[in-house]
Amino acid sequence: MEGHDYLALVEKIIESRSFGRSDTYANLLRYLMTCSLEDRVPKEATIAAEIFGKTGFDPSQSTLVRVYLYNLRKKLKKYYSQEGAEDPVVLHIPTGSYRIEFTSTESQPTFSKSATSFSKRTVLIALLAFAVITLGYLLFLEKDSRHSFSKEPLWQDLLSGDQPTMLLLGDLFIYTAFDSALGTTRILRDTRINSRQEFDSYREQHPDIASELGTLSYGLLIQSSALWIKRLTEIFHAAKKDYTIRMVSRFNPKELQDYDIMVVGMIKTLGIFRSYFANSAFRYDIDDDALVLKTSTDGEGTVYKPSGDPDAYHTDYAVMAKFPGPNNNTVYLFGGIWDTGATQSLKCFTDPRLLESLKAEMVKTLGEVPEYYEVLLEVNGVDRMELTPKILQVHAISNPSAIWAAGR
Q1: pLDDT band for position 172 (50/70/90)?
Q2: Burial code of 147-179, b = ≥16 C-beta within 10 A, e = fewer?
Q3: What does the domain layout of the chain look like in residue ranges?
Q4: Does the reported pTM lie above 0.85?
């Protein structure tokens, strides 16, 4: 095939239903094809500048390009499993590479023999490099957790305090509905119903179907919960301290006095801890699913609402806060409007570099790291994976004792 044939193949893939309608992914594929035909392998920073308009891009601080390449590979795989199943040439991008390669349906590479040898040699080098990097990363995590967090002032209440710690994961409320037409019971998730109280209210508003609706003894955890548990387990294990894990929907408020609490999740899933916003500088607008910086007595002000496609490039907002519990204990809240924000807010507390940036911003804005605080973050993400955080607001909580009074 000639160069123009490969370019035509790219356009065919882009126009397919399985590839989707994303200009960003289309431009990325065209760009990589052009570079490959010109025998150029672009650097990650070059792709960030050419495709995403991000000059001064630092690959060590952002996974933007790698996430897009990961999703582009999935789109190509989907295309060749559907419309492109009979194509005479298969286009693929090897993991860890930004060079497009081609394979005929007889599995014979259409590139030269020297290119194939280079690919094999590259794989061996990549495997060795991966092993070294992985070992170094694991050693870094172990060293990082043992030395940084055990001595970190922002972690003292959790790692050095006398209270046991409980991690509460915001889980999605689900319920059952009987389908009389089919004679079956289905499990449903309604984004407007996020607690037993909201479910009961929904039943009262719809008496005609109330008898067909039922509750379950469990909720639904989002995928990011595994990442939250993994990172916190590394830190607590290094500090030789245990912690208990519960879902918000199964949390007994009577236990609030017995633990230091870390609650993580989408704000609408945080149950009784949503009452925190009654005394916060922010208001959570449940109907609009947005955060509002209160600038007037009626709670109105600047609105922070997610934008974009959560399954593609998007912007989310999150609040991280530390405030006292009702019994000389401490509550840490990490809440996003979407799960991207929830993940990034916790990451700002568990990543040493981001934690240092957080402390620096507190000192710059407030003159100190206050005992109790709240922080508003803007988070850019791709496919529900967080990428880069930006601290928008930092506030000291001036009247922490009023939080639980407001909650009542």
Answers
A1: very high
A2: ebbbebebbebbbeeebebbbbbbbbbbbeeee
A3: 3-111, 152-171+221-407, 175-215
A4: no
